[in-house]
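User: Could you go from structure to sequence for me? I need the amino acid at each position, not a summary. Structure tokens:
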């Protein structure tokens, strides 16, 4: 018997969810790259309001590193989902860990929500929910036999 005849059929919604999740995480990668470019350009930083300048300047390296792990891990994990690789789950768990470490800084150690307002809080909660959802999705995909 061929492997195709014994493997369960992957539903169309798997591909839709994995594709949208990859786009979501690529937006995070672009956000990370944009923030790094912003922080490395004093002229552009000077154009920001003083509270945003202070927020970026006072962000510790560990929080920035967690941001990198979160977005790059998320993008790679979603790519692995699309490639039907079981490793997606581990990579997405690492990404979730990066999200949670980054959000410790956002929630408890910075004035992020004062600077960016309610929209900053909504986006932060959405990021956490999506990261948890992607780990669940990868786990379900493994259990259903869609990825191996």
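Assistant: Here is the amino acid at each position, in order:
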């Amino acid at each position: 018997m061929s492997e195709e005849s014994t493997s369960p059929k992957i539903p169309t919604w798997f591909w839709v969810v994995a594709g949208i999740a990859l786009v979501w995480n690529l937006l995070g990668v672009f956000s990370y790259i944009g923030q790094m470019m912003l922080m490395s350009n004093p002229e552009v930083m000077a154009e920001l309001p003083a509270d945003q300048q202070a927020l970026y300047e006072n962000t510790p390296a560990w929080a920035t590193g967690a941001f990198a792990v979160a977005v790059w891990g998320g993008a790679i994990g979603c790519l692995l989902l699309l490639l039907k690789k079981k490793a997606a789950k581990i990579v997405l768990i690492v990404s979730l860990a990066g999200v949670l470490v980054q959000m410790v800084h956002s929630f408890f150690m910075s004035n992020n929500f004062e600077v960016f307002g309610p929209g900053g809080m909504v986006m932060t909660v959405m990021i956490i929910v999506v990261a948890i959802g992607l780990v669940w999705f990868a786990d379900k995909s493994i259990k259903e036999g869609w990825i191996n």
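One structural detail worth keeping in mind: Residues 11-143 form one domain.
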